[in-house]
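Render this sequence as a predicted structure.
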Amino acid sequence: MGVKKINFIIFETQMPLIFKDKVLSCSTIAVWQIKENEQFFLNNCGDNWDGKELTELKGKRRLEWLASRFLVQKMTKKAYGIKKDKFGKPQLQPNDYQISISHSNGMVAAIVSKKRVGIDIQKKVSKIERIANKFLNSEEKSFVNNRYKISNLHLIWGAKECLFKAYGRKQVDFKKNLLVNKFTYRKNGNFIASINKSDFTYSFHFENRFFNNYYVVYGEQN
């Protein structure tokens, strides 16, 4: 039985699409800036969410949550439902593809694939240095301290967020279980990272992009 093809479409709303590309071996990403109001998504997402979870969200988080569901629906050209499993990982219903979603300061990113994947979008902020010790191990510390330190920190944090999402079971030590191989920073670069747990040990190929003061990091299982 062959692999089912994902049908991607041109976006027909007023949302400013930043980019939509096929990436890595079999994944597609999309990133855009939210311009619609909440009612737009409520009118156009059908049943593409968990109503209970939505009631617990307010303000910007609620809008970004709705927008991310709508983005996946448009990427796949189907009104898939997105429900969280018992560990809190978003999954398509029916579970035809792997997905990951992320949002930051009015930007939303999503990745759809047949493989395990993760995506993270972050606005560039200098305060990431304050939390670096919470996620950097000794090997990673050895190569981040150069003129691209802030960028390196964002990429490592983004990759570890992606691995955490791909694993999807929450109990992860960001220093011990999530490992990023040494890389040289490029605005549009690539690198390798891995997750090492007793029940889940995989290497992922990552790519990163930088645009409009935002970092996008996305990875696919090797």
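Summary. Residues 82 and 91 are 5 Å apart (CA to CA). Confidence is low (pLDDT under 50) at residues 1-14.
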